[in-house]
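Retro notes, structure queue

What went well: the backlog is down to a handful. What didn't: a couple of records were mislabeled last round, so from now on we paste the full input next to the output in the thread. Example, using Alkaline phosphatase from Tissierella simiarum:
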Amino acid sequence: MHNLRNKSYKQILILIIILSIFFQTSAYIMASANDNNRNQVKNIILLIGDGMGTSHITLGRISKGSNLHMNSMSYNGFATTHPIPQEKKWVTDSAAAGTALATGNKTYNGYISVDVDQKPLETILEKALKSDRSVGLVTTARITHATPAAFASHNSSRDAENQIAKETIGKGINVLLGGGRGHFLPKSDNGKREDDKNLINSAKNLGYEYVESRKELNKINKGNILGLFNDGHMNYEIDRDKSNEPSIAEMTTKAVKLLNQNKKGFFLMVEGGRIDQASHANDPATAALDIVAFDDAVKVALDFAKKDKNTLVIVTADHETGGMSLGANGIYNFKPEELKKQKSSLEKLLPTLTEDNYEKEIEEKLGITLSEEENKEIINSFKEKEEITKFLTDIINKRSNTGWTSRGHTAADVPIKAYGPGAERFSTYMDNTDINKIMTELLNLTGRKIKRAA
Ligand SMILES: [Zn+2]
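Corresponding output:
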């Protein structure tokens, strides 16, 4: 009897041990499967606000009157922006900063994804293509402009946009949407090309669907696409003809839809290209609307990533432009309501002003009624284009109390915001080249694996 009870105790004990090993093992397997899922980055959407410093993000939020989507992203960090440190210039241009983000290497200002010896540096877009992923570039600037160019081409001069256009077309990039039609057309066809080549026809021969309006863009549902919506940069959001030119959010929606048809995943770069230019012009109302429009594209990316779960979304900037401050001249106030009255960019308004129409135009387009003194001043400034630009810039910034320290870039660090698998890696202070290195690692595009894929 005693022996028997002892035996059944033993059996129960063994059963408990077996069951506990089984549950622990299965829990471990499930946990590691979850870990793998969490770490798997199939797609990356990198959104770059050109010239978008922290003040710009605040400007967008205050002007919008509610929080920006980018501010909801789970992980936040900061990045340096300077070009190759040996130069000790500290202030980057979009070419050197674009090269850092596209290749993980520092270079000189003006250089497009080439090193200091002008040797090509492989970009994350090129590596993603080699790994059979789909790739895309979306921008509101010219598609040949420094930031997208740094992902698609190699050149020791950012100004060689005719060459950059040719290289971009020949690369097999699946989605190309932006401005800059002039660099794809010969001079004989109102373009800027001196080689008399029509690269739009070349693109069609390479299998691209070509579109140049919002309506045409809407019709494309598969295949490779080249969309060039303006001869130069696309219009600022404040000036955009919404029936004809797609918004940056609409372009992003289409890009994601097309690229996501590849089961192996995709890499997409989206640039809010004109935040920078509005800031070069010290035109805060125009910058504000482009920041909010860029943020709408961030929402498109986040909505997709939330459903997809294998998409990493990163929002950052290449540098800050303008040394902008919200509140200036020792006055503790900023008046976004003054910016809301503006209906046109300064860039678009200025060439239309004459001594006869200026009073009405400034009232209508900028929402500004000039004082008697200002009227006298503007009449005098009509002699020089630069004078009137300065006069109007001063007037709009004085009314909203926006400050600017420069018409160029500054050396300020820029924010990084990340959402999705691997996002926690960006929740620190890093060099801008590290953003590329982490993306490359998360997409499994490090050198060794590339060779195998290619
Ligand atoms: Zn710039």
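Agreed that this is the format going forward. Reviewer comment attached to the example: The chain has two domains: 43-324+416-453, 325-403.
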